[in-house]
Every structure is written in structure tokens, then in C-alpha cells.
Write a structure and sequence with these properties.
Oligomer: heterodimer
Number of domains of chain A: 2
CATH class of the largest domain in chain A: Alpha Beta
Order of helices and strands of chain B: HEHEHEHEHEHHEEHE
Strand content of chain B: 15-25%
CATH topology of the largest domain in chain A: Rossmann fold
Radius of gyration of chain B: 16 Å
Strand order of the largest sheet of chain A: 1-4-8-5-9-10-11-12
CATH architecture of chain B: 3-Layer(aba) Sandwich
Largest sheet of chain A: 8 strands, mixed
CATH architecture of the largest domain in chain A: 3-Layer(aba) Sandwich
CATH class of chain B: Alpha Beta
CATH superfamily of the largest domain in chain A: Alpha/Beta hydrolase fold, catalytic domain
Number of strands of chain B: 8
Shape of chain B: globular
Number of domains of chain B: 1
Number of strands of chain A: 12
Structural class of chain B: alpha/beta
Distance between the termini of chain B: 27 Å
Chain lengths: 386, 213
Amino acid sequence: MSDTDQIENGSKNLDGIATVELKNIALQLDSGQVLDQVTISYRTFGQLNEAKSNAILICHALTLDQHVAGDNPTNGKPGWWSSIVGPGLPIDTDKFFVICQNVIGGCAGSTGPTSMKPDGSGVYGIDFPVITIADMVRAQNLLLDHLEIPDLFCVLGGSMGGMQTLQWAAAHSERVFCAIPIATSARHSSQNIAFHEVGRQAVLADPEFHAGAYQQHGARPRKGLAVARMAAHITYLSETALQRKFGRNLQDRDAVTYGFEADFQIESYLRHQGMTFVERFDANSYLYITRAMDYFDIAADHGGNLAAAFQGTSTRFCVMSFTSDWLFPTSESIALVRALNAAGANVSFVEIESDKGHDAFLLDEPEMFATLDGFLRAAARDRGLS
Amino acid sequence: MIDPKAGADGNLGNKRIDLELIADMVESGSRVLDIGCGRGELLDLLVNRRQADGRGLELSQAGVNACVARGLSVVQGNADTDLSYYPDNGFDTVILSQTLQATQKPREVLREMARIGPQLIVSIPNFGHWRVRAHLALRGRMPETKALASSWYETANIHLCTLLDFTDLCAELDLKVAQCITLTNGRAHQSTKAPGSWQNLTAEQAVFVLQRS
């Protein structure tokens, strides 16, 4: 199914889920390898205007997908940013044409380790080439070309979505009018690489992993992936939020059991998070996407000088961080803002008071909504969109 | 830094007269950096009335958030530590409105401002005003006036000076006073000369336009 025909014949209803197969296009990767016959799954909301000047690309985080708003057809739940994206919301789909694409390497429809190899010899599995954030953004550029959209009014996203946002601004600034990197960094820190490594080792240690060929063995490394998710999930929260939500409360019991069952609510919660995650996410995808984040370092591509990556950019930026986010702390955003200032870029920076940790960017944060709304309104006015 | 007791937006009376004056001094369409931009009152005037390419730096997060929500380009930061990250001559005009006296190192701040842009606009309260002098001389107490409304133990103003002190520092930094507007009882007096002893006694505050010489 494709909605590109609808764009071409000017249909009003572009809310849709679409898969584009770019059969004759080869995607040249940072690793030197080439990905043939790329499939891109994406979703759009709202209507592209005649001047094609109102497109917004939302980039998703590590384990999310293209279902940013509307209902997620796989589980019937509302999209992960449905409080932000929709008619009359800060990312107003009455005004903007919103695109969200599953990243390559993912497992929600775009080409990734669960895809069939072009030669028909089975699924990629661990034979999938290692991809980078820049590769993900190259695939998004291909989608934009395919949709015949010359440039984007705005690119935004949180966490890994923020990394893609920064990559867009650094490598394709002529296609980006404004960029909103949220709860992110221009490079993945040593501590964050460390957490990812713990997760990957948990997956690799699972006997059901079968050296990445678990699909061929009719198996899945559920336990390893669940442990990876449990560890990662802790990094998305804050101590305050954990203490408030769970404290030392016991789970369905009046006293500790002097054993290793989930006595505490927090243990039960994490186990649940791990178990539900493995039902919706592929272990190999987890390895590939965490690796892509680890390799991300914009300054490294510019002789270690982050400002050089943005020198002379005409893109305007709105950087956001959250006070209790220790995975992508405010200091990372400040380093980015200083580099953007040094590059003479038009930049706004807002640190939002929240005790919800890294996940705050996905939650109901009125200050974030007000910032998005104000920044987008001013940018839309300057782009002649309102 | 605005005195907390002088109203949420640092209003002297109902509006900050110095903001109106400063907005009129900025050339249309120029690149302006407003250091200590508060909730963006001046920046808004500059962007919307003077079509300036305006950017702001503000210490308080609440101020920054208010600015960005109204569509202004503002970053959270500190005049003492963050100016060094701005490029040489990145702006035409650099503004510091009622903030110099609250910085840790006013001389370094002025030096950085002169590096970032060729024209500086600085407004300061005048500690040489007769009321301030009288307060200290006659009552033997630290002055509390309309422009300096906080008690000594809670004021953010740690580096107060008189107009003459300020022009001495400008001379040391090779900054030429191109214009000086003194404000007394809400009335402005404009001059292209640096203030003399009389203004130093009678002005409550002053707005200086400085140029690198």
C-alpha cells in the first residue's frame, strides 16, 4: 500500500500508513557497505501545501516507530506523541504536513535485520550491515526525494530522534528551515555507550540468540532482550520518579519472602517492562540501533570541532533538555548550544524543570508544549506559513 | 539583573523607560545580542519594531522559557561565563540592560561585549545619585531607592558604580561614549558627551552607547 499516489493527485486525506519500496536505489552506508532495495515504512498526517513548504519530519527514538500520532495498528494504542501531534496541538496537523519514518535497521516495516535479503536467501539477521545515524538520515532524504518534497519546514525529535535532527542540520542544512533537538547530544557519551554495551551483552549471552540467526532456529532471545530493556529502562527515569512511584513498596505481599521473587514493586514493574518489550521489538534491531547511537559523534566528522559542523548554517534551532535527565543531561545541550553560538547560528535553548528523567520528552510537560508552540509559531510566521 | 523588589519585570513605575530608549537607538535590521534579556520585553521591541535579527542570553530559566514561548531566540546562560562562546563581531550591537552591576566581573563582561560587536548599549543605575549619597551620608545606612530597591543582604547588585566610575572604566577599555542618556524622575536628557559631575549627582540611571575606538 502506498499513499504517494494520493499526494500526486492532490487528495486531502494523507493520514496514512505507507510503505515505499525503493527497488532501484542503493543506499551507500558509512561502513562502506551498500544496502540494496531499501524499504521505507512511514506515516503522514495533515496535508502538504501547494508550495510544499509545510512539511515536518519527526524522528523517533531508539525503540519507537512511525506511529507518532493516531492509533498504532499493531497494538491499538495511541501514537507515542499523540499529545503533541494532531489538530490544534503544538505540531498542528491542520497546518503542517507531518512525516514520521521507521528508521532503517528498525523492526516496524523499514529495512532492517528482520527483512528478507534482496537475493531471497533468507532474512538478514546478523548479516545486516552496521548502520549509523547518518545512514538513517540518508534514508529519510531518499523518502523526501520520493515524496518530491524539496525541503523541510522543521525536523525534530527526542533522544535518538534528536541525534537524527542534529545530523539533518549538520549534513543537509539547506533542506532544514528549523530544527528542534530534544533531550539529546551531539555525541553519545562514554556512560551511555557503557549502558548500551550491558544491554547488548545480555542479548548476546542468551542461548536463544543463536549467533543472531534465531529466526532461522525458530527461537528468540527473550530473556537477554528483556534484561537489556530492564537496564535501559532505569536510565530513562530518575531516582525521584522511581522513589515517588514505587518507593520500597512490596508487590502483592505484606512481607519480604527471603528469596529472589519480585518482592518489590519496582522489580515487578521492570520485569513487566522487559517482558512486554520483547513482544514488540527485535533483538538484532536492538543491537544495530544501539550501535548506531554509540557511533554518533558529529564533531568527529569535523576535526573534533562541533561548531565547524554548523558553520554558516541558516537553520534555526530550539534545543531542549530536562533537569532530571541524567542520560542526556543539560550539560550536553549546553555544549551543543555553545557550539551553535560559536557558529553564528540562530539558537534558542530551554531547560525544562521536570523530575521525570529522560522519558520526560514523551510525557505531558506543559513547558515543553509551550516552547514547541512558541518556537514553531514564530518560525512558521517567518516562513510565511501562517 | 533586575532588582527583585522593583516589580516582576523590573518596572520603574509602569514601564522600563530605558527599554524604549534603547530600542530607538538600534538601527533597523541590525544584528543584536541582548544580554540579560529577562522575559524578552526589549528583544520583542527590537525584533518587531526595529526588524532586528535579535538574540538573547538570560540567566533565569523562567525568563528564557517565556522568551522562547513568545517566539524569541534566547538561550539560558550567564554573562560572566558564556560570552566567550560567541564569535568575534557576530553582532552589530550588544546590549546589557541593568545587568552589569549584577555580574561577577563587569570589566571582563564589557571586554567580551566589545569583542562580539562594535557598538555597545549599556544601561546602569547611578550610585552617585544624590539620594543614594544622602542615604549613606545622613542615615548611615546602605541606600534603598526606587532604582535600587533591595536590602544589602539580598540584592543581586554586587558591583554598583557611579556614572563617572563607569566612564573611567570605558576609557580604560578604549570604549568611546558616543551617546549618553541620563534619566531623572522619568525624564530623559540626551547628550553626545560623557556625563559630568552634575549628571553624576542628578541622574538616577543612564543609558550609554559605546563604540570601540
